[in-house]
Amino acid sequence: MTNSLIALIDSVEFEMALEPGAHAELLIDDAGCTSCHQRNGRGGPDAEKNKTFLGTAELGDEGRLPPLLTGVGTKLKYDVLHKTIAEGLKVRPYVVSRMPSYPAALAEEVTRAIFAGDNEPPSAPFVPAFSLESRKVGHQLTGTDGFRCIDCHKFAGHDSLGEPAYDLALMGARLQPRWFHEYMIDPQSKRPDTRMPTFWFDDVSLFPDLLGGDSDAQVDALWTYLAAGSAAPFPKGLIINRSDFDLFPSAEEPTLVGVFMRGLSGRVVAVGYPDRVSVAYDMENVRLGKAWRGDFINVKGTWVGRAGSLESPAGTDVIDFPPGLPVAIIEQRDSKWPDDPVRDQGWRYRGHRRDAQRKPIFRISGPGGVEMTELVVPLVAADGVHLRRIFRFEGDTLPRNLAMRFARSKQISPAGDDAWITGEGMTLAVRGLSVAVVEVDGMMELRASVTRAGAEVEVEVRW
Amino acid sequence: MITLLLMTLVMTFSGPLATVEGTVDPATPRPAREADYYQAVNIPVPSGIVLEVGGLAVGPGTGEVYASTRRGDIWKIEDAYGQSPRFTLFSDGLQEPLGLLWKDEWLHCVQRGELSRLRDEDGDGRADLLETLCDDWTISGNYHEYAFGPRLDKDGNFWLTLNRPFGDEPFGKMHWRGWAMRIGDDGKMVPMAGGLRSPAGLEVAPWGDVFYTDNQGEWCGTNKLCHIEEGDYFGHTWGVESAKLPESRMKYPGKTPDGLTYVEAKKKIPDLKLPAIWFPYNKMGKSAAGMLWDTTGGDFGPFHDQLFVADQHHASVMRVDLEQVDGVWQGAAMRFREGLSCGALRLAWGDDNVMLIGQTSRGWGSVGKKSEGLEYLRWTGKMPCEVLTCRSTSDGYKITFTMPMERSTLEDVSSYSTENYTYKLHSPYGSPEVDRAQVTVDSAVASADGKSVTLKLAGPGTMRIGYVTEMILAGVRSAEGEKLLHPEVYATLNRKPGE
């Protein structure tokens, strides 16, 4: 505490000589509050300090800067303001900076001064009327059948449907009801730059049938409901069950969904076949990436809120096809398989056609105008479901030295007619091309040359 | 558990009927409301379909609308304006397709990572073929890496805009984020302009110029409408390093000064493009999105040739009257229609010149009762009392109205309140309205028919280049004594006529 502040607190005569508002301003300045917070148009961080406040980018300055102190004595309850100053109470998890804590005596003095200053002249108590009907309406208005507060605000620690704005369940215990009321009707009157919308327009209520469409009654209803804090019933739409986003392909045709996929790329289409086998096709890397059995995929991370999560297969027996293109131009049969980015090699994804059963036939193009399609078909066998990959080379000509690679493993061994088994236990049977195992850089690769335009290559993949 | 509706490939709706808002009780006198002039109708969506509209394309058949969704589907909607629209899953498995366009009997769409075109070859209402036309840009796997468009310019090229990412980039930082792209017949991408932030709306004017809308945030003082020309820099610093690549048509702008007004910053970076329109934050929406030029020739009301702009947050449609002075676009923004069911993202003209509005609030809360949907506005035929146009003069503005106004209110300078301000180009989120200067209405001269007024402004805030003149016409009344439905006009000035 600074000497001048101690002197100020000790100086009863001086305190008595000042108007309550002026007293509050002096104390706030002296305690250093306005070096970070703005109050009554004064203070706030300077340009350099402003840049040091970090937060959640999507919330803008509201998610980064210390809150305004203008009227804070009408906003927060006395004990909350005191605790905030004395203990550095943190309620905005999205703001990285922490409020420091101050000695209890100073906290008490500043709180008292702010309350005296901001509540002069005192106004009559503001007590929203409680009724079960009002609480019920407040409950509805908070959720997805109402104003959808939870689109942005957390509730009792549960994530909102979008931005991570301030927890609604904290408001009843922290805020003064009059401030809440005025803020709801005109948010910008309290915080000019806030993104908080109002829900009552000139002459139109979004919910004219609730409490007669009366804006005051509807705000009171929200307060009445939020007053119960985290014990209030959950707003509708808040709790999202992950299982609600399990995708199950229909019995008739595959289901396709576009996702970011862990281990592949940001440009993947997952295909779930009715036979409960699924694949992930990586459009960026122009190859089949994964296959799995059982459940298809859960897309909560792609379909909820702002989404953008990396998804993974939901099922079992996940196999990863070797990185790199299934097709390439190589100088020698045992040349190193190109690992340059596919774009640099001249290969690109070109889209897909749906066959009569709406299975996708993926198309890629490469150097020399070569075009290749790949159709993946579930292969139902005595021991379960496997896959058949059917490649077709389009066009009348092919570039020289075109080759395919079907497997890469530390070990590849013969497993019967035209079939091979990898060290990972994947069995491949190739028809349409003459395959051979070559050793490159200490790894075994199953390769074949492609010399005939129009060639069709079928690979049974069992695992 | 989501029961995918693929089992019934064509679903006939049998649920609630289309809901029409705005029923009026003539016995109760009350002020004019937007719904008296533009009635909103919700298109009913079968349960199980989550129609978070990202793109809209109308036709080709009567009553047909195609809507792409953020979940990655394209729905073909037949009898869209009837009581029982039919929904058919045209395509699935797309990545956040945020725009649709018909061209040469192909339905074009932009996904996160590619420009695609789709076609139903066997006539069963479902796409059999998807061709990737261009994927010359890459994505790092961040949710905010949206792509918007496609739109066609007068030479037949496609245009796209690409968002900047926010947060994790699991597959590495990629080039061309925050850029506007042109794609020719050869499928090659040409990066035309950079420095965009979240360019959720892209449209080509009937005369061929390309415009986009951007969203307030860092390096974007408030929402804005910009005219894109080759080489433009719009001020966001995220993707400027891509300008060093040979494909770029924008010169590397160097270090962008942090904290100057846009006008001052432009003195240091000549390629910095000032917006044609600033949308003052909260006064004119909070999330400018899709656009639509009024090409209805009057079928949608008095605003033909003007531009409508959707706002996602406010669930509203705004209106813009553009003018070109010395080859530079500027104009005035006004409120048009609020109180929609959900955040407005896409606009399109439907049959009989209704305005279709594709909606979603997921991830970005919006005003409104619904989470997503498709709604349309129909002009009731009644003339709203509105500002029609607002055009700059050498010393003020000439404002026209949709109907004759009471001349005494037009000529009373106390009918108007005015302000003048601009925005900072800086790294913090958004900009307050800065550098205010006093501006007043010095004189107001009405036309003889009362359908226009010429305001001469005075004071240091008069007609400053790169600034917004806010004019509230609270005291103006129609000849019948009616208030303006929306008295606010926000005019952006980039060039003064006669200079």
Task: Describe it.
The complex is a heterodimer of chains A (463) and B (499). With 463 residues, chain A is an alpha+beta fold. Chain A contains 14 helices and 22 strands. Chain A has four domains: 3-118, no CATH class; 132-176 and 186-231, Cytochrome Bc1 Complex, Chain D, domain 2 (Orthogonal Bundle); 241-321, no CATH class; 324-463, no CATH class. In chain A, α3 (20-31) runs antiparallel to α7, α8 (132-142) packs across α12 (215-226) and α10 (177-185) crosses α12 (215-226). Chain A is elongated and about 95 Å long. With 499 residues, chain B is mainly beta. Chain B folds into two domains: 34-379, 6 Propeller (Neuraminidase); 387-493, Immunoglobulin-like (Sandwich), CATH 2.60.40.1220. Chain B is built from three helices and 35 strands. Chain B has helices at residues 34-37, 262-268, 407-411; strands spanning 10-12, 19-20, 38-42, 53-58, 65-69, 74-78, 86-91, 99-103, 106-110, 115-119, 129-134, 147-152, 158-162, 179-183, 189-194, 201-204, 210-214, 223-228, 260-261, 277-279, 288-293, 307-311, 316-325, 328-337, 344-349, 355-360, 372-379, 387-392, 396-401, 417-421, 424-425, 440-446, 452-458, 467-472, 488-493. The longest helix of chain B is centred in the middle third of the chain and has 7 residues, at 262-268. Chain B starts with 9 loop residues before the first strand and ends in a 6-residue tail after the last strand. The interface between A and B is large, with 72 and 71 residues.
